[in-house]
């Protein structure tokens, strides 16, 4: 999937547009990306669509380790997108903060 | 007969010994002594025993055999010594154990300050520890002709309680008859037994064995109603009648007729007479508590004791047996007496000073007039969820029932065939697992088939129908190392859909784990991420003043880590606990609660405005139609809760749709109070008994949006035709004749089907609102996360709920009402308050610019409305 594509980097504006403990969806190139900002710190990016039934991961509940899809409660690691509940894994991307700005890198 | 009451030798020899005095030498007093001696009490105590019957102690249970036994020698003290099993301990036994027995001395008063007891022979006996085992006596109902004087029964009238009673009866039958002519003898051959309980039937059987014609008079239709329910009693009744016993049921005795000072018959309350020459009164027993009362000990039905069997007033005084009242119960059969005696001895001797008695589960097995009867626990199902297995073979005189609650045997009755009593008693006492086919309890218990049901399922059987998890998936999970039910559920998501398969999941996993597996403490946590049950969690939150989800995790979670599956439950809990000042962390909410709409499979949302009681207006309908047109709502649908659902609204359009609707939120998305379904009630319906529409509207207006552990769906029906389906709602009301409302709770007709239980019948609209609110508040405070009322009500027990909510047994009704009122007062319509964004990007779409699996859009065809 997107991992085979060449690296795409996008500057997406201020980090503060993501409330602490939640996620928000962005478009990076053609790729829908959900970026999460857990309370325990850091930023994480996953493909925004749940591989199970297409649920919006950015709407999911988040803790320090996983996001839970709001449709059927599948859980995906924020770090590598792996699923602990039996669905396929989801692609993981890199999200960082640079000068207060959110930067997401695909690939 | 009275032995000396002077200082016992033992004490003179060992002045250092503690003085233990036992008042009462019946079965419980003697048993207590035996238990004390078995713990070495003979070395530490100087023991004196007072018994007002002039015998060694004897086994009262065998009195009926004494009576049935034509030979009356057992009565004679000397003959009985050492041989007859009637005597638990012969007189020698007291000597051998250094116990001083004062047989025939009645203790009349305790001086608790001086620590001495006064005997009716003038003796004064000091004690350090006193044991009261005064037992009970026959109850003689007030009745003309019963008494010859203040203390003497009319000749021919007998109790059936003591050895003296039994021997006098025997003398009356045999002795008198021998002295009389044969014609007079005939007259002495009819007995009336007043009271058809256990004792009465035993007396009746004993007398019948002597060839006496026996009439049993019992005030209800149910013989042995303490132990048996109506059907079981009927079987017993026909057996007894087959044996020639005359039964007068549902009949009361008014008067004992006498002729020349002797019994000549009885007169019933209907005025009819029955001639007889002896009357046995077995109308119940009364604990002997006179001594305790005059000595200033707390008595109610009997002497009130604590868990160490001490009088609640005096730590030096212990009470055991039928004269003891423990946690409201007074026991009249031997099993509990044995258990009490053991605890008492543990405490008195110090062999286990922490021993406590926590009440007994009653199980009786006996032979009534040759009929085997065994009974344990409850007689009949008490809750609608109790299982009841009944087997009746009246031709053979066999009747058997078992009552099961939550998979545990809580009662059994066996009449005629008691072959399964041992296995049943074991299951009853140990609360062990029961065979899936309950009938095996009565016919096939103990076969190797136990726990076979889950283990025998083929691997491809689908266990969880929501998430498509097979038995094989669960078993594989165990083989991969999962050690608990919750671990398997987390890994496979079995049981995480509607939840109705959880029991089966548990069985399969436990079978795969090889038996019960480890007790899974996580089962009791309120949320999985914090290892505390709800009451403990609430106490911690309150004492630490935690008002945000993040602070609860920080203080109470292992390593302070937050947990995704726990956030929603904690958010709901904090909103319930701190209606005024919880810290609103939006990330603790599920998406539905962040945007006040229900997420759909394509990431769009459904919008359901409140339409209280399902009553709408042309104006509302026009507005809804306009909104549907303007926003091109893909589907407009009527919900099961009598409202209108606008489906397929993108998140970013929600605020606009709300504004255009200009209606409040219907909360069709939360773990919250949803709707009140109503029928048309008295306004139009020709059958209506109560104004269900108004009550439903008022109820919804009052409790709208109140959050809880799970959703709450209500209904109000205006008559017992129940068109609003009140019996299958979390709370359902039904108007009945007389201006009253029945309030059902714990009903369901979704993933689980359950008929609600009647919590209360109230007299007014306002009271209906209040009781409903109080129940909901109690549910909010005590139910586990996601525990619907259909699980909560049976878990708490209907009796308990009635006690707390209707009868205010815990004195918390006012507090519950006040806390509910506080929540009601704090209500704000989320659609109005969130017209301005609460968090950045709150209504931004989470799936930008990507074609989604769309819900097919139907074209609506206009049809004639169908009224229901």
UniProtKB/TrEMBL annotation, chain A:
All residue ranges annotated as the Rieske domain in the record: 10-104
Domain of life (superkingdom): Bacteria
Keywords recorded for this protein, A-Z: 2Fe-2S, Iron, Iron-sulfur, Metal-binding
PROSITE patterns registered for this protein in UniProt: RIESKE
Pfam families in alphabetical order: Rieske
Transmembrane portions of the chain: none
Residue ranges that the Swiss-Prot or TrEMBL entry lists as coiled coil: none
PANTHER family tied to this protein: 3-PHENYLPROPIONATE_CINNAMIC ACID DIOXYGENASE FERREDOXIN SUBUNIT, FERREDOXIN-RELATED
Listed name of the protein: Rieske (2Fe-2S) protein
Organism this protein belongs to: Actinomycetospora chibensis
Native organism taxonomy: Bacteria, Bacillati, Actinomycetota, Actinomycetes, Pseudonocardiales
Automatic annotation (TrEMBL), chain B:
FAD/NAD(P)-binding domain mapped to chain residues: 19-328
Metabolic or biological pathway, per its Swiss-Prot or TrEMBL entry: Nitrogen metabolism; nitrate reduction (assimilation)
Enzyme Commission number: 1.8.7.1
Domain NADH-rubredoxin oxidoreductase C-terminal: 363-430
Entry keyword set: 2Fe-2S, 4Fe-4S, FAD, Flavoprotein, Heme, Iron, Iron-sulfur, Metal-binding, Nitrate assimilation, Oxidoreductase, Thioether bond
Domain Nitrite/sulphite reductase 4Fe-4S: 670-805
Cofactor: siroheme; [2Fe-2S] cluster; [4Fe-4S] cluster; FAD
Reaction equations catalysed: hydrogen sulfide + 6 oxidized [2Fe-2S]-[ferredoxin] + 3 H2O = sulfite + 6 reduced [2Fe-2S]-[ferredoxin] + 7 H(+)
Protein origin, superkingdom: Bacteria
Residue span(s) of domain Nitrite/Sulfite reductase ferredoxin-like: 599-662
Transcription among keywords: no
Ranges of residues in domain BFD-like [2Fe-2S]-binding: 463-510
Entries under InterPro entries matching the protein: BFD-like_2Fe2S-bd_dom (IPR007419), BFD-like_2Fe2S-bd_dom_sf (IPR041854), FAD/NAD-bd_sf (IPR036188), FAD/NAD-binding_dom (IPR023753), FAD/NAD-linked_Rdtase_dimer_sf (IPR016156), NasD-like (IPR052034), NiRdtase/SiRdtase_haem-b_fer (IPR005117), Nit/Sulf_reduc_fer-like_dom_sf (IPR036136)
Main function: Catalyzes the reduction of sulfite to sulfide, a step in the biosynthesis of sulfur-containing amino acids and cofactors.
NCBIfam families in alphabetical order: nitri_red_nirB (TIGR02374)
Stated family: Belongs to the nitrite and sulfite reductase 4Fe-4S domain family.
Protein name stated in the entry: assimilatory sulfite reductase (ferredoxin)
Organism: Actinomycetospora chibensis
